[in-house]
Amino acid sequence: MTDTLTTQQDSVQTAKAFVPGHITGIFRIFDEYDDPLRCGSMGAGFSVTIGTVTSVSVVDHPTLEITTEYNKQSVDAKVTKTVVQRLAEEYERTLRVHVEHDSSLIIGAGFGASGAGALGTALAFSHLLDHDIEYEKAAGFAHTAEIMNHTGLGDVLAQTVGGIEVRLQAGGPGIGKIKRIEHQDALQAVLAGAPGLETSKVLTNPSSRARINSIGDRLVSRIIDDPRIEILIECSREFSEKIGLRTTRVEQALANLDNVGLFNSSMVMLGDSVFCFCYEQETKIAQEILLQYWNNSEVFVSKIAPEGGRLLS
C-alpha cells in the first residue's frame, strides 16, 4: 500500500512539506555550546502564511548525490545539503536526492527562507527515510544545519509552532521553549524587504555579537515578563535602533509609517527589511508607503500563520 505522503514510480519516492516564513523582531544569541541543539536564541517574532513548499525526491544510488533548486533555479543550497547529508548519515543510506524549494520568500531578507527550506527538507526527507520519526527529531536536523552554517538561530524552532511567539529558552526543537502571544485573527503583516544584511557575517562578527547581546539581554527579559504585541514592537524598535543595523530606507520607511499612525512596525532581523502589523483596512496604506522604498516584488501582505511546518498529503 502506497503511503499517502509519498509517491513511488520507477523506485523514485517523493514527499512534500510546507513551512511558513518567520520574522524576528528581537533576539539574544546563545551559541556557546558544542551541541548545536543547545544553541539558538531567545527573542520574539512571528510566522506568516507565505512560505516554502519543499519537495524531496529520492532513488537508491551507490553514493550520496544531492541537487537543489530554488524557484526552478539550480542553486548550491548549503543548509539544505547539510540537512540531507546528516539525515543520510544517521540512517546510513546512499541515495540520489533532489530537493526543490517553491517559495514566496526572498532569500537574505530576514523572512526565514533558510529556516523554511531547512525544516521543509528535514520533514520531507526524514519521512522518506523513516515514516515513524518523531517531529522534534526531524526538525532538530534543520535547526542543527542552521547553526552549523551560521544562517539562523531561532527561526526553525519558531517555524515548528507558528503564530506570534516569545522564545523563552534557547535551543532547537525539544530543548528550546516557546510561548505564544495572543492576537486577533484579523491581524495581518505587511512585509517589505531585500537582501542587504548577511546573517552569517553579523552572527560571526565579535563586535556585532557583543552589541546584540548587551542590548538584547534587557529587552528580551522585558518581553518575556510582559508578552504582548505592543511590548514586542517597543522592544524591537529600541533594539534595532541601538544595535545600529538599520539602513537609510528602513529608517525612512518606519518614520513614514509612524506619520500615518501605523506604529506597530519595526525592522526585520536580519535584513534590509521592515514589518508592519495592521488590519485589512490599513494594509493598502502600509503597502503604498513601503512601495516608495521597495519594488513591487519585495512587498507582501500576509496573515499570521496559525501553525508551523508540516508534511503535505
Fill in the keyword field for this structure.
2 domains, four-stranded antiparallel sheet, Ribosomal Protein S5, domain 2, Alpha-Beta Plaits, 9 helices, 13 strands, disordered N terminus, 313 residues, nine-stranded mixed sheet, single chain, alpha+beta
What is the name of the CATH class of the largest domain? Alpha Beta
Question: According to CATH, what is the topology of the largest domain?
Answer: Ribosomal Protein S5, domain 2
Strand proportion, as a percent range, falls in 25-35%
- The CATH architecture name of the largest domain reads 2-Layer Sandwich
Runs in which pLDDT lies below 50 for 5 or more consecutive residues are: 1-5
Q: How do the SSEs run, as a string of H and E?
A: EEEEEHEHHHEEEHHHHEEHEE
Kindly state the number of beta strands.
13
Summarize the amount of helix as a percent range.
25-40%
- Integer count of domains: 2
Average pLDDT metric: 95
Distance from N terminus to C terminus (CA atoms, Å) equals 15 Å
Which class best fits the helix and strand makeup? alpha+beta
